[in-house]
Write a structure and sequence with these properties.
108 residues; Lipocalin; four-stranded antiparallel beta sheet; three-stranded antiparallel beta sheet
Amino acid sequence: MAFSPSVVFAGIKGHVVALDRTTGAELWRTKLKGTEFVNLASDGTYIIAATSGEVFCLDPGTGSLLWQNSMKGLGFGVVSLLEGSDRGNSAAAAESDRRARARQAAAQ
């Protein structure tokens, strides 16, 4: 499911919540684990959430849990997330786009 530009995602107390960007109305809520801080990331297709030492993958349109990993043997600490491609870094993505445009302009 693709991300909708009209939705904002929040992580709070073991939940991921989708909110309408215009009205603030709750669209869906998914309970994960515990009542701790929820770290959120995206790979551009899915929501990746981490809380209480576990990592979860959610469908952004429905909040359905697609998979989870208990990170066995690593405890229950805060999990930091980094999306796997350099597109996750907006500064790197912007620079990559700038360079591509410059190459295109030079080729014309």
